[in-house]
Design goal:
Length: 121
Amino acid sequence: MDSYKISELAKEFDITTRSIRFYEDVGLLQPERSGSMRVYHRRDKVRLKLILRGKRLGFSLAEIRELFELYDTQQSQTQLNKMLAIIDAKQAVLQRQLEDINVVMNELHLARQRCQQALGQ
């Protein structure tokens, strides 16, 4: 079974060991202990990757925890419906952000063209 030290995970994901300890403190990661040393396994590494991806996508730690809890337990109809609601809400937010980004990108493109035309004259 693969195991990792906290420093190895921090380096791989380009985050601080303090961040990883924080995720442990809030219950998102549960490494084993070998004396005072934390020993992380493949499951912890995958969960850390999902935490970081979720944060990049705008999920709160509470939402990430909720998704982990849904994954870790038997998935009842209620849980699956809640997960779908979270996904739908996040997709709507990201779609609005994508549309805003496209508008800004077009405006920047037009501004660039005007600047290049002014320089050419």
